[in-house]
Amino acid sequence: MDLVPALEEPLKQSLKSVLGPATAKVMAEHLGLTSVGDLLHHYPRRYEERGRLTPLAELPMDEHVTVVAQVADARLHTFASSRAPRGKGQRLEVTITDGSGRLQLVFFGNGVHKPHKDLLPGTRAMFAGKVSVFNRRLQLAHPAYELLRGDSEETVETWAGALIPIYPATAKLESWKIGKAVQTVLPSAREAVDPLPASLQAGRGLVSLPEALLKIHRPHTQADIADARARLKWDEAFVLQVALARRRHADAQLPAVARRPKPDGLLTAFDDRLPFTLTEGQRKVSEEIFGDLATEHPMHRLLQGEVGSGKTLVALRAMLAVVDAGGQAAMLAPTEVLAQQHHRSVTEMMGELAEGGMLGGAEHATKVVLLTGSMGAAARRQALLDLVTGEAGLVIGTHALIEDKVQFHDLGLVVVDEQHRFGVEQRDALRGKGKQPPHLLVMTATPIPRTVAMTVFGDLETSVLDQLPAGRSPIASHVVPAADKPHFLARAWERVREEVDNGHQAYVVCPRIGDEEDDPGKGAKKSAEDEAEKRPPLAVLEVADQLARGPLRGLRVEVLHGRMHPDDKDAVMRRFAAGETDVLVATTVIEVGVNVPNATAMVIMDADRFGVSQLHQLRGRVGRGSAPGLCLLVSEMPEASAARQRLNAVASTLDGFELSRIDLEQRREGDVLGQAQSGARTSLRVLAVIEDEELIAEARQEAAEVVAADPELDNLPGLRTALDALLDEEREQYLEKG
């Protein structure tokens, strides 16, 4: 954020004399740190007090830990092994203690000599390694260590502070080595350029940036840490919000064609056909969208709505308004299954209004075309012709819409469904097909907490649909503990049979496909628990076979997955939608947009392998008609595990916004921001988007005022420099393209 020449110096040079080029290489490859400035912004994760030892009693399994403790006992054993058959093998066992518990360290072979000399009873040191279990006791095998004694000047200097910083580290680079490197470059912190306007810094009582960097890396008291974090949090929130405010300001300057619907045109004819009335929420959001479409700069709006809240209808009305005004509208869907589904439901909702240019087409009708990568050459040629002549007012497609060959007559609106699945470049390419920038409506059924929306989609205005249309049924969700209570799983299959006997249908969802190309680990969320379990995730092909021959024998069972030919996928979905299939065993291809009101039950196998928002999305596929929905989350995870707690949370609420908070609290914000920021490494180091809600809202307000007064930041060179550092190329593009 600061990067003046001293802070731009490559670590290779600045650390040459202290830790050597190999350390600089590890920092670059494993931690993404290449310059002095990067290292100064690699903040400690926590601090150890010299006088208080880390609780050994609370060590997490399978994690890389750093502990401060005292050697209680050290013993050298000799043993015979295949490598040392004459009893010459050596093993050093060292017991360390911190008052709360004891931990065994073990060293083998030639690696015993140095620790045998260093780790005498009474010695205090920092130890780092991976916690494992041997003979039912926790141990660290071959840990790295750093003695804590005050006899050499360097050690005294390094650990002079009362608080020892513990840095986010990797197996290849221990925390104290990072600490040594930081101490080497810390004097450069005094040259950091402060990005905050002086009045803002003074008004909020924040310390200067150089002071914050010195205090976060070498604090003497807890108050030092609090001061530093308060300042660094504010920087992160403010600089990001300035970037977004500048984006909004630039968008407001772009020209666009205002699109107002005709009083008695296509939209009116469509509304008259609807067999139901719009919900209050749908009406309100539609008004916001129509207001944006009527202006002469491009709409940039995010439409968030619970699964099944009727977003597609709102988007379709916006598209029809644009067609009324003489333009064309494109809807971009992430998968072929979803594009075909949208095309089907749109043409069904529009009836003869979708038959423009055909016999029997209504007076205001337009043509609705589908464009996907797997279409036949003749159908594709006709679709392209309909777009370039303007014959087709609406087009629904996958990223095939983005190809160079696709030309529009007058593209006025782009609707992107499930925004998080599209790269920035794809959205931008489609927007570039308008004569002037088209209006943009982004839809997501993954609810996003307000602060994340402000941080990630801060350049978009946000509309929320939070009420379900009349006629939607509640969904009961339960966790099925398959390992603890196998009879619960047997009961789950009985429940599926009961639903089918009552004339309904069911989904069974598995994490992977199960054919030869399939990688057992692919798509599964890896966690320590998964690693411990070692079993590959359940696969569609295997489960479908077992069910058809076992508990669901006699029912019509079919499979659906992403590697099937598009025509086969569509045929399977059509049969399921027509009620010709009882149970569909599928991967997450059904996660978004698939609408079969007669499907009332869903069983999700290995549910712990899916994320919270993904489970919520999947569950939204049932209960779409008048009959109540049932979702069973099957897991073999033990009751106390974090994975089971996550599933319990999903089972306990249907509120997507509540679940998105839970999801975010259980993950690092970087995952959320990284995904939305086109994969760029998140800049959030001390800011927590859930905890710091008020701070982010205040930073947004301040940023808007600063940008309104000085859009180019001519009077704030420090802030400009900070923006340049935040917006590495990838992020710059992300924000540029919105």
Task: Give your account of this protein's structure.
By secondary structure, the protein is α/β, with parallel strands linked by helices. Helix content is 40%, strand content 18%. It has 28 helices and 21 strands. It has a 7-stranded parallel β-sheet with strand order 11-12-10-13-14-9-15, with helices on both faces. α21 (566-577) links the parallel β18 and β19. α9 (209-217) crosses α10. The longest helix has 32 residues, at 222-253. The protein is globular, with a radius of gyration of 30 Å. The relative contact order is 0.10. Residues 152-161, 518-533, 668-682 and 732-738 have low confidence and may be disordered.
Brief summary:
The chain is α/β, with parallel strands linked by helices and 738 residues long.
How large a portion of the residues is in β-strands, by DSSP E?
A: 15-25%
Number of helices: 28
Quantity of strands, as a count: 21
Most strands sheet: 7 strands, parallel
**Fraction of residues in helix:** 25-40%
| Biggest sheet strand line-up | 11-12-10-13-14-9-15
Mean pLDDT: 80
| Termini gap | 22 Å
Pairing-aware structural class of the strands and helices? alpha/beta
List segments where confidence is low: pLDDT < 50 over at least 5 consecutive residues. 152-161, 518-533, 668-682, 732-738
Gyration radius over CA:
30 Å
Rough shape?
globular
Protein topology:
Layout: H1 5-8, H2 11-14, H3 20-31, H4 36-40, E1 46-49, E2 64-79, E3 89-97, E4 102-108, H5 113-118, E5 124-134, E6 137-141, E7 144-147, H6 153-158, E8 163-166, H7 175-185, H8 198-203, H9 209-217, H10 222-253, H11 266-273, H12 280-293, E9 300-305, H13 311-324, E10 328-332, H14 336-350, E11 367-371, H15 377-389, E12 392-397, E13 411-417, H16 424-431, E14 439-444, H17 450-456, E15 461-465, E16 475-481, H18 486-501, E17 505-509, H19 528-533, H20 540-549, E18 557-560, H21 566-577, E19 583-586, E20 599-604, H22 612-619, E21 629-635, H23 642-652, H24 656-666, H25 669-676, H26 693-709, H27 717-726, H28 729-737
Parallel strand pairs: 4-6, 9-14, 9-15, 10-12, 10-13, 11-12, 13-14, 16-21, 17-19, 17-20, 18-19, 20-21
Antiparallel strand pairs: 1-8, 2-3, 2-5, 3-4, 5-6, 5-7
Helix pairs in contact: 9-10, 10-26, 10-27, 11-13, 12-13, 17-26
